[in-house]
User: Which sequence fits this backbone?
C-alpha cells in the first residue's frame, strides 16, 4: 500500500530513507528541528489515514455483527456510536499528541475509498457476505501496512528527538535560545 521508494521525492520517501538519520550529530540544530517537523507531519498524515481505515473496518464489522445477531437497527442508525467507539478506544502507548493537521486529508480519503472501490459503505446492508468479508480483509491489511510505516516514522522521530535532547543535556543547545526563537515566531505572527 505505502511503498517507500529509494530516492523518491515524497515526504515518506525522504523520512524513511536510509541516510535520513545518519550523522545527525553533524547537522545544525535548525536542520534537526526542520527534520523533526517533517517527520511529525508525516506521522500526522499516516495517523489520519489509519483512523480513516479504522472507521471503515468498524463499519464493516458492525454490519457483520448486526447480521450475525439478527439485529434490526440499521448501521446508519448506529453510525455515531460505531465511530465514537473508535475515537475513544485507542491503544495505550500507541499514540502521540499531535498538534498538526493532516496535510493530505483529501488524498488519504481517496486512497481509503479506492482500496475497495466497488464496495459502497453508504449501504453496507445491501452487500453480500463475500463482499463484506473482502472489504474487511482489504481494509485490515491496509491498516496493518499503514501502522507499520507509522511505527517506522515514529522510530525516526525518536532518533531525532534523542539527538536534540542530547544537545540540550550537553549544553551545545540552549533552552534560552529556543525560547528566544519561539518568542520571535510569536511576535512575527502577531504583527
Assistant:
Amino acid at each position: 500500500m505505502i511503498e517507500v521508494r529509494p530516492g523518491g521525492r515524497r515526504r515518506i520517501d525522504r523520512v524513511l530513507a536510509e541516510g535520513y538519520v545518519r550523522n545527525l550529530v553533524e547537522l545544525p540544530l535548525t536542520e534537526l528541528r526542520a527534520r523533526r517537523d517533517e517527520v511529525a507531519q508525516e506521522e500526522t498524515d499516516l495517523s489520519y489515514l489509519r483512523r480513516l481505515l479504522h472507521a471503515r473496518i468498524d463499519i464493516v464489522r458492525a454490519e457483520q455483527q448486526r447480521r450475525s445477531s439478527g439485529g434490526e437497527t440499521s448501521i446508519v442508525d448506529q453510525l455515531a456510536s460505531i465511530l465514537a467507539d473508535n475515537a475513544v478506544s485507542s491503544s495505550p502507548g500507541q499514540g502521540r499528541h499531535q498538534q498538526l493537521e493532516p496535510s493530505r486529508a483529501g488524498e488519504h480519503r481517496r486512497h481509503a475509498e479506492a482500496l475497495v472501490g466497488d464496495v459502497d459503505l453508504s449501504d453496507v446492508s445491501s452487500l453480500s457476505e463475500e463482499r463484506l468479508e473482502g472489504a474487511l480483509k482489504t481494509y485490515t491489511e491496509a491498516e496493518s501496512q499503514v501502522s507499520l510505516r507509522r511505527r517506522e516514522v515514529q522510530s525516526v522521530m525518536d532518533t531525532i528527538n534523542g539527538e536534540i535532547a542530547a544537545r540540550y543535556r550537553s549544553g551545545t543547545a540552549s533552552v534560552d535560545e529556543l525560547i528566544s526563537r519561539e518568542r520571535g515566531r510569536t511576535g512575527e505572527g502577531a504583527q
